[in-house]
Amino acid sequence: MNLLRCSGLSKRYGNKLALDNVDLTLETGSPIALVGPNGAGKTTLMSLLLGFIKPSSGKISVFGEQPGSSTLLGKVAALTQDAVLDPDFSLLTQLALYARLHGFSGKSADAEALRVLALVGLSDAINSLPKALSHGMGKRAAIAQALIGNPKLVLLDEPTAGLDPVNARNIRELVADLSPDITFLISSHNLEELEKLCGKVLYLDHGKLSQAVDLSAPDQQA
Ligand code: ADP
Ligand code: ADP
């Protein structure tokens, strides 16, 4: 299925050209790595995909629709930072509330919260308060939040930043497990970490897409 199409896509902030004439077509499936140094334009591309900002010129469509259009609600989700968790309420309470915001009601909101918490391996922590979670668990809780409503595309901006190697690996295994039902677009400044996980790598540098490389066999053991 066509996931993303960009043609001549540029984004300017004042005089700064953050994305420079990007042409790109992506299909759903294996995780896709978006790699480049700080300032390369990774966050800008993700923000355009989400419809948070508008292109300065060129075109972009996601699942054939304009980013931000109502038909994409629920289909596209993002983890751009850690979940916004209220210290006074349990994970289950908070995710069920979030599910309600996504249109689930009553018992089905609880069921959806339990489903996503199980997906990320937090079934034993459903009654925990955020302060009782380790950093790695907090990250998984944030991913659980992004999975509510079963999106088809999930954007992960530096999902392993600040995690120790074991927790970083847990996140990669989680992504491998949920793929390819969900297509993940994962930004990182560290290609090595994503090489085994991803089926495709997009290199951004100074706003230019320098290469889009297909990796032969993504290693699901990553
Ligand atoms: P990355 O995510 O790869 O670090 P960004 O997309 O955040 O890159 O930034 C790309 C370039 O655009 C950088 O030079 C950054 O400083 C600049 N930039 C990003 N957002 C803004 C903004 N709101 N206003 C001005 N410049 C911005
Ligand atoms: P990242 O490193 O994840 O790309 P940053 O920490 O660079 O994000 O940017 C955080 C926020 O600051 C974003 O909203 C971005 O748009 C904005 N920003 C980044 N660079 C600039 C800049 N040069 N001028 C103004 N805003 C910026």
Key words describing this protein structure:
222 residues, alpha/beta, six-stranded mixed beta sheet, three-stranded antiparallel beta sheet, 6 helices, 9 strands, binds adenosine-5'-diphosphate
Shape: globular
Mean pLDDT: 92
Distance between the termini: 25 Å
The major beta sheet can be summarized as: 6 strands, mixed
Give the class from helix and strand content and strand pairing.
Answer: alpha/beta
Radius of gyration in whole Å, from Cα?
17 Å
Count of distinct strands: 9
Task: Please trace the helix and strand order, writing H or E for each element.
Answer: EEEHEEHHHEHEHEE
Strand order of the largest sheet: 5-6-7-3-8-9
What ligands are attached or bound here?
adenosine-5'-diphosphate
Keywords: ATP-binding, Nucleotide-binding, Transport
Family: Belongs to the ABC transporter superfamily.
Domain ABC transporter: 4-222
Protein name: ABC transporter ATP-binding protein
Briefly say what this structure is.
Helices cover 30% and strands 28% of the residues. It contains 6 helices and 9 strands.
Describe the overall structure.
With 222 residues, this protein is an alpha/beta fold. 30% of the residues lie in helices and 28% in strands. It has six helices and nine strands. It has helices at 42-50, 91-101, 106-119, 135-147, 165-178, 191-195, and strands spanning 2-13, 16-27, 32-35, 57-62, 76-79, 153-157, 183-188, 200-205, 208-214. The strands form two sheets. A six-stranded mixed beta sheet has the order 5-6-7-3-8-9, with helices on both faces. Helix 2 (91-101) packs across helix 3 (106-119). The longest helix is centred in the middle third of the chain and has 14 residues, at 106-119. The chain is globular, with a radius of gyration of 17 Å. The two termini are 25 Å apart. The relative contact order is 0.20. Bound molecules: adenosine-5'-diphosphate (2 copies). One adenosine-5'-diphosphate binds at residues 13, 16, 18, 36, 38-44. The site of one adenosine-5'-diphosphate (ADP) has 2 residues, from loops.
